[in-house]
Amino acid sequence: MPGRVKTRLTPACTPEQAAALAEAALVDTLHTLATVPAGRRLLVLDGEPGRWLPPGWQVVPQSGGGLDARLAAAFGHAARLAPHAPALLVGMDTPQVTAATLAEPLSPVGRAGADAWYGPASDGGFWALGLARPTEDLARRLLLGVPMSTPDTGRMLLDRLAAADLVVRRLPGATDVDTVEDARLVAAQAPRSRFAALLHSIQGAPGSALPTAPEVAG
Question: Cα separation of 71 and 68, whole Å?
């Protein structure tokens, strides 16, 4: 919804453009994750799904509270729907992530011996968090009270994982789309994505408020 998502893209983008970019990022992420082998695909959503929702996804409502509480509750949903199955939570801010990034580390061979997976974001946060044996209680112990969207978010979460004696496997780092500069970088990393196509169309639209992105070599 304009004005509620990707607000840091404004005023370079209009609220409507920012919302459209958020939707494109979400759709790219859903389609990528649909190609990663998994027993269940769960979308924890604030609001009602639109026509952008591809088949094969079960939708459950987000819980209330801060982001730390909502993330913990998402693991609780996963644990109740698929007891004893590992769960990987991925945000909607990294449309450049590929299936290959996740398929190998999450394969039966790749996940042997791992208790958790952690995907660091370039802003100090994280774009993915996985638990081999998720429960809402464990997720709450790991996440509640960790300040979100700060340069120390990832470090504090890693400290919690270590304190819980969990064996953590790191996933490749990625850039979250928070600012216009982030959007340009991500579009260059995934030039065939819906996100990149929309960003380029906004840049080229008459009267667009978004500055033209610099050329990216290669």
Answer: 5
Burial of 48 (0-12, 13-18, 19+ CB in 10 A): exposed
Q: How many CB atoms lie within 10 A of CB 164?
A: 13
Number of C-beta neighbours around residue 192 at 10 A = 8
Does 43 have pLDDT greater than 80? yes
Judging by beta carbons within 10 Å of its beta carbon (0-12, 13-18, 19+), is residue 167 exposed, middle or buried?
exposed
Q: What is the pLDDT of residues 47-82, one digit of tens each?
A: 999 999 999 999 999 999 999 999 999 999 999 999
Percentage helix, strand, coil, to 5, in the chain?
40, 15, 50
Asked whether 169 and 118 are in contact (CB, 8 A), the reply is: yes
Q: Which helix (H) or strand (E) holds 68?
A: helix 67-81
Beta bridge partners of 126: 120
